[in-house]
Amino acid sequence: MGKLINEARFEVGLSADILSYYADYSEEFLKPEELSDAPGSVVKTAPIGVILAIEPWNFPYYQVARVAAPQLIAGNVLMMKHAPNVPQCALAFASLFSQAGAPEGVYTNLFCSNEQTEMLIDDFRVRGVTLTGSEHAGTSVGGRAGQDLKKVVLELGGSDPFIILEDAPLDTALGRVVS
What we know:
Blueprint: H1 5-30, E1 33-34, E2 42-43, E3 50-54, H2 62-73, E4 77-81, H3 87-99, E5 107-110, H4 114-122, E6 126-133, H5 135-147, E7 151-156, H6 170-178
Parallel strand pairs: 3-4, 3-6, 4-5, 6-7
Antiparallel strand pairs: 1-2
């Protein structure tokens, strides 16, 4: 997708770490939790069904890993709409899940238009939608999903601050800010 090789390697490594983390701790995350304030009450994690994820081009592996790992361990089915300019990243993830033994249909790539995506959001079988994108996209997706009271997670644009601590090597930090 046009990233510097060291940044691309970092993203792939981070994505692998995320997948490993959820694999290692899935049983702990899914364990029923008794509520101390309400004796006899237990919180249980249960799948809700099909989740539609709409992800951007700029971190095509990381964005998938951070969404797919928790959804799949929770037992949800994931339909992933990648940005159209990173189809090879989408195919790589599908191959990864297939090689790992995921049942067919648990993770599905979607190569569809915005209009087709709107139809998917409206589909009664889609129980939740997650989007990483612009405020405009978030307004559109969130509003559409909200009409049917579907669960929605929106991570919308913005510019993150870059904080350089006093003990940081200034040349390295500045190099990262500018690159």
